[in-house]
Specification:
With 240 residues, the chain is of the alpha/beta class. The protein contains six helices and twelve strands.
Length: 240
């Protein structure tokens, strides 16, 4: 019987740097004193992030101009190159120990891809993968990105799925290092889209099945209370 637990909390709209701080703090206390594995689901205000294999050359628009558009650029220690995050895009950050699951990093990425594909199918979309390019596509159109970081065997960062974001914002960068890549969303494919909360619960259910782990959902108040015993400061006021 599976006794590994995954605690899911949906945080709503959280600035990127604040979410990064939360991830780092949770991973820190997980390493020190056994804080449980967690799945954070949320969305971000507009931001471009560039991973460890990317650089300024992945931008098609000057950073100064992007700041004028209220789109900060953040360089982060996750795999992958540049991507855009913004309202209408589902974000999932699983903060879990792969060693407890006897799961390799490659298998973990495959699990994330399968999870996205299974959830998209609930809305009638047939997703697929491209070898060597983590993420999920609808034919040749990318609908979901994956970028992870391993820290002492624990996962950070995760996935983004385009429900109904501003797809024009992807023109400011070379998405995921693919100059000719086409980015799509559930709304573009179907004419309509679930909202973030409608998408996050099926995603959490399917991810827990795929890992496999026992899923427990928490509201933000219970999440804060759970973390207080580890002297976690919780959500602050940091903004991008």
């Amino acid at each position: 019987m599976n006794h590994v637990s995954l605690f899911h909390v949906h945080l709503g709209l959280v600035p990127y740097r604040e979410a990064l701080r939360i991830q780092e703090q949770i991973c820190g206390i997980q390493e020190q004193n056994g804080c449980p594995d967690m799945l954070l689901t949320l969305e971000h205000p507009a931001v471009i992030t560039i991973g460890t294999s990317g650089g300024v050359g992945d931008l098609r628009t000057d950073e100064t101009e992007l700041r004028l558009k209220n789109i900060p650029v953040v360089y982060v220690k996750r795999g992958g190159k540049a991507t855009y995050h913004g309202p209408g895009q589902f974000i999932a950050y699983p903060l879990i120990g792969l060693r407890n699951l006897s799961c390799s990093p490659r298998r973990y990425v495959e699990i994330l891809e399968r999870t996205i594909i299974r959830v998209l199918k609930l809305w009638g979309l047939s997703g697929s993968t491209i070898p060597g390019h983590p993420g999920v596509w609808i034919e040749n159109r990318k609908i979901a990105s994956i970028g992870i970081r391993l820290r002492r065997g624990r996962t950070m960062h995760g996935v983004s799925v385009n429900l109904h974001p501003d797809l024009d914002a992807f023109s400011y960068l070379v998405p995921c290092g693919m100059p000719d890549g086409i980015v799509t969303s559930i709304r573009r494919e179907l004419g309509d889209s679930p909202d973030i909360e409608q998408f996050c619960h099926p995603f959490a259910d399917v991810l827990a099945q795929e890992l496999p782990m026992s899923l427990f959902s928490m509201d933000t108040a219970k999440w804060r209370n759970t973390l207080q015993q580890y002297h976690f400061p919780g959500l602050g006021s940091t903004t991008d």
